[in-house]
Write a structure and sequence with these properties.
Blueprint (H helix, E strand, L loop, with lengths): L1 E2 L9 E3 L7 E3 L5 E3 L3 E5 L2 E5 L4 E2 L19 H12 L9 H14 L4 H14 L4 H4 L2 H4 L3 H46 L17
Antiparallel strand pairs: 1-6, 2-5, 3-4, 4-7, 5-6
Helix pairs in contact: 1-2, 2-3, 3-6
């Protein structure tokens, strides 16, 4: 439930004192919340209900060395997932406001200054993927460009090396799979049990 009415009894801003992260894994990339998470800001309360799906911080595989998918900012990431999937999707909250709340909540969780701004810039870039997110984007997000100017020289070179390493490992896995497939063919001709062979996949997502 999203409550947008002003409530004078709410704290000025922040997660409620009882807000704890409890989740259950659904698959390789998604989790589901087992307890509610309440966040208040400007007299508004946003409640992440039980059963809300999340992938924590949506960080591409090549950058997880720099920004793991979970950490000090986990609550903020779960909140942001909820805001984008519910109030932003149904039109009661602009995407830019959801991203600002993400940045604000990370500050309250004491995420390091540059790290939280880089994460904010990343979700602002991600907003370009849909029409709602693109509305008024350039006018409100000029800060993204100086942040990228600072961050890219640090994160881009390792990312290139990681992509190359992942490609090499994918090639090795593919060769190993071919060898196992040949071995299974030999086992089958001899009436022996075959070994399971998994197909390798190359992905830049975890």
């Amino acid at each position: 439930m999203t409550q947008l009415a002003v409530d004078e009894h709410l704290p000025v801003t922040g997660f409620s004192g009882t807000a704890e992260v409890e989740v259950r894994q659904l698959n390789d990339t998604e989790w589901v919340t087992l307890s509610r998470l309440d966040y208040s800001t400007g007299g508004m309360r946003f409640t992440v209900p039980r059963g809300q799906h999340t992938d924590f911080a949506s960080v591409p595989r090549v950058f997880v060395w720099f920004l793991p998918r979970y950490g000090r900012y986990t609550k903020a990431a779960i909140l942001h997932d909820y805001l984008c999937r519910v109030p932003v999707a149904n039109g009661t909250l602009p995407r830019g406001a959801a991203d600002r709340i993400f940045l604000q909540s990370m500050r309250e969780l004491e995420v390091a200054f540059l790290r939280r701004w880089i994460m904010w810039a990343a979700v602002r870039l991600g907003a370009l993927a849909n029409a709602r997110g693109r509305q008024g984007w350039l006018r409100a997000c000029w800060q993204v460009f100086p942040i990228l100017f600072v961050a890219l020289p640090v994160v881009a070179p390792p990312a290139v090396v990681i992509v190359a390493a992942l490609l090499v490992f994918y090639l090795v896995e593919t060769i190993a799979r071919a060898a196992l497939a040949v071995g299974n063919l030999v086992r089958r001709t001899r009436g022996r049990a075959q070994k399971p062979v998994s197909t390798p996949k190359f992905s830049l997502r975890l």
